Amino acid sequence: MTDQAHTPVPKSGSGAMIGWTAVVILMVIGMVVAFFLLNAGKVYVVSSEQSYTEYESDLASMDIWLPADLEQTRQLIHEGAIVDEHQIISTDADLKSLVDNASEASCPAAIRAEIGKELSKGKSIKMVRLTGTATRTTWLPTGEDAADSELPALGMSLGTLQWTATGEVSTWEVTKELPNHLTAEQRKAEGGSLSTSRTIGIWLAAILTLAIMSFLFGDNVFYKTAEAILVGSSAGYAMAYAFYTGIVDQLMVNLFPNLVREWTSPGLPWSFEWDWVYVIPAILAVMLVCRLLPKGGWIARWPLAFIIGATAGFRLTSHLESDFLLQIKQTITTLWAENANGQFDFWGSTGAVVILVGVLLCLVYFFFSLEHKGAVGKAARGGIFVLMITFGAAFGLTVMGRITLLTERFDFLFKEWLHLM
Questions:
Q1: Taking each helix axis from N to C terminus, what angle separates 374-411 and 346-365, rounded to the nearest 10 degrees?
Q2: Beta-bridge partners for 48
Q3: What is the C-alpha to C-alpha distance for residues 255 and 276, in angstroms, rounded to an integer?
Q4: By the 8 A CB rule, do 125 and 67 touch?
């Protein structure tokens, strides 16, 4: 253990304070000069208005038989169609009876073909008769003519729709960022204007990047501030992302699909419907939150144990495949490699021999039933050599990954902030 009395620590006297103050003043002066001379961090954009108009169309006098669990069926019911009659199709005779009592338009050939496929699998199909009027809405760019459109379902058409504008118009601005290398005259010709919000964002990112890099000179208040901002914002983003992808996209879409469709996802497919199975994870999620209760923390142990056990089970199969079976499969290769023309492949064969020898040497090193002496000891030392190469390559890959992050930050500073590249 290191003796604290002999461990060098940064000094925090008046000299260090004066040094840091001088550094901050020089950085501020440099940033001001860069802002005015290099247009550092300035982002110019071109804004244009985009507008969409809502159209609706009525499919009146509807009379058609459709499977009840069909996505198109649920959509038509939501759009105003009325379920007038039900019928269970279990045999070909039931299908023939339905076809005899319905017209071609009421039970098209495409629907009959799909029902026949399901009956051949031994399944029963619940059919519903939809009548009344269904009103469908769509959005088109303002100014474009609403062309006639068809309502497809299983390769058939329920009729031709005539679209009529409802008067609802949605308008917003579309912003495009201009390249950094454009001159003032070129930006003016493009109609560009300075984006204050994006410029502030670039400057904040650059300042925080420099604050993180200031750790090279020792622990300081700038590094600590940037670190706290990074950790806090990352935790907040992770929480919001996990809530939407976990609670909304996985749980609520199966418990309250109509609510999600009206709230966050208007384009949610109509194949989603209420499924009682998802009540179980909802209960487990509520139990997990009980960890925050002063006296109810023990309730969270049950869902936590379920999560750990289920995760271990899922990961076991994947790790068994990737870390065990796949590695064994890669070592069971032919030592006589050939190319696509059937000729001997020297480097392919050399690689197979190296893999075989490396695997055998590593296995000898981990074979502790025999004392590592003589030939066994030399093979074990060879195994150590192979392991060191492996660990070194893994460490080198990690270092290269960190260097990639560093070069990305320098690329941001010199290109997007200082506009020097």
A1: 110
A2: 174
A3: 7
A4: yes
Is the confidence at residue 400, as pLDDT, over 90? yes
Q: Which pTM does this prediction carry?
A: 0.69
Under a CB-based contact definition with an 8 Å cutoff, are residues 49 and 173 in contact?
Answer: yes
Quick one: pLDDT band at residue 158, thresholds 50, 70, 90?
Answer: low
Q: Using the predicted structure, report yes or no on whether residue 330 has a pLDDT greater than 60.
A: yes
Please give the pLDDT value at position 11.
52
CB distance 161 to 148 below 8 Å: yes
Q: In angstroms, what CA-CA distances link 217 with 30, 203, 213, 421?
A: 19, 22, 8, 27
CB 65 within 8 A of CB 107: yes
Helix (H, G, I), strand (E, B) or coil at 161: strand
**What percent of the chain has pLDDT above 90?**
20
pLDDT band for 15, please (50, 70, 90 cuts). low
Pick from 299, 303, 281: nearest CA to 290 = 299
Averaged pLDDT for residues 53-57: 86
CA distance 406 to 398: 13
Is residue 170 within 8 A of residue 51, CB to CB? The reply is yes
Q: Is the torsion defined by CA of 90, 92, 94, 98 positive or negative?
A: positive
Pair type for strands 164-177 and 44-67? antiparallel
Q: Residue 110 is which amino acid?
A: A
pLDDT for res 154: 44
Measured between alpha carbons, how far is 347 from 217 in angstroms, rounded to an integer?
48
Please identify which residue in the block is written with the tokens 């981990």: 366
